[in-house]
Structure formats: structure tokens, C-alpha cells
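TL;DR need C-alpha cells for one chain.
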Amino acid sequence: MIRSLRSTGADLHLVLDPLRLAASVPQAWRLLGRLRPAVIFTTGGYLALPLVSAARARGIPSLLWEGNVIPGRATAAVARLATRVAVSFPPTLDAFPGRSFVSGTPIRSFAGIDRAAARASFGVAPDERLLLVFGGSQAVARITTALDAALERLLPDWRILHLAGPTGMPAALAIRERLPAALAERYEPTPFLTDRMAEALIAGDLVLGRAGSSTCAEVAAVGVASILVPYPHAAGHQQANAAWLAGQGAAIIVPDGELDGDRLVAEARALLDDEHRAKIVAAARALARPGAARLLAEELLAMGEGRALPSLTGTAG
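>> reply
TL;DR here they are.
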């Protein structure tokens, strides 16, 4: 097993991991010789190094996609071997000069979803505002704690749909039990939405969540105001993502350590102003790249077929 490059312990693995990586290159060489792929697609990371290195040695083109503003060290290393690099955010181009292009982040489709119908399906009346709260793939204690402290002040103005995750549901249900009956019906915790997530984003007037690449891309594509609370670890990737959106006027950013009930109430109350939200929505939509998946697919097909690359000829769809 090879650890992440973020591992810092000075132990035996510090010596063994490079040796393991080097030993993986001939294995990757043999694998590529057997499979004979026309092109390699990777999202980077430490374990992509042997495969992309072997692909380069065999003359197989490769496309690396980086979803965050600041690439990780392992991804930067892989990028030096890749044929082309696609990035989600324009500032990331500077990390890969001459070989990169902006693709955006592949996201789910929002085509054909009617906002009025989506809102009705979640019990949101035309004159109500919906706050959608989520924290990524797992329940986020910081967000749930702040929401708990703010709920009784938020619910008179907002209906709240809270994606708490399976592990966060007991706490969310306990929160609802403590609410007065008149407010409890306006707060709906759910473990997940599976295929209804697109409808929830379309129905929402405001999103509260983390700042992963997909979240940033989806709030822009949908055109919804957002309060982003970046995950404070993982080399600060989410902080940079959120800071870029906020710098374009496309989101509100609240540092993880500053999010509490009072701060959440203050930010949400400011966003009750329809004109204020509309400015954020317009800025977010201006950054949207909903065709990212198609663009990446077109680039990969061209690489595999030896055609002129859409990212170089300006013909990407």
C-alpha cells in the first residue's frame, strides 16, 4: 500500500513508497500493452504516476483533469507527464502553462426540470423561500451544529431541506423534535435525495454547504445563491475554490471556524433581499460551464483518434 503524499511521518514508508511506485511502472507498462488503450484519462493523485508514466513511454496520450483551484502535489507531478491538462477554474491554468485548458467540472444534468414543479414536489409555496443545506457525501457536524442554533430564527423566513446523511439523521431528527410544532413542519431532514438532488437544487433559493468542485459547479450551473463553508483541511483546496467564487461575487464565503448560529442567521437574513440574491445568482451563472462532461469527452475522443484537439482549435462544444 502506498500512502498519500500528504503523509509526513518520517518512517520506513518514506523510503519504501518511492520504491513501490518505481516497481509499479513496469506493471503498468505490461497492463497497457495487454489492454492497448487509445487514450488515458485520470484525475491525478499519487497512484496515477506509474500509469501515466508508462503511457507516456508507450506513446499513449493522456488527459489529466484537476477539479480544484490549487492542484495537489501528486496531481502536479502527474501533470508533468500528461499530454494535456483540463482544469475546472481559470486560475489553475497558471499551474500548468502551455498544456492546460478550462473544461469546468462534469456535473449532473439539470435539463428539463421545471422549477415550479420541483418546488411543489418539496412542499414549497410560490411565496416561500427554500434553504437547501448539505455538506457533501457525509454529515458535517459544524454545519449541523450551526443549523441547530439558528433554526428557530431561520424557519419563519425559510423552509429548510437538510441533507444530513445517514449518520447525521439521529441528530437532525432530535433537532426537529425540539422545535415548536408550527416550525417543525418547515424543517425537513433527510439522509439523502439520490435522484432528486437535481430537483432540490433547482427548487432552492439558497444553498448552505461545503465548497468541493462539484458543489461550486452545480450552484453556478443552476444559478442559485450560496453560502459556502470550505472544509478547512485537505491542503485548503475548498478554501481556494470558495474564495474564487466569492471574489467573482458568485457566492458568500464563511470560514469553517466562524460558522455558528448567529453568523448563519445574519448571512441568511441578508440574503432574504431578492435583489441581493439576484446579483449573486447572475454572477454564478456567468461562471457556469454545464457542458464540461461533453467537452472532456470530445477532447478524449480526439486524442484517441489522433485528430486535432478541440481545446487547441477552439472547436470544443
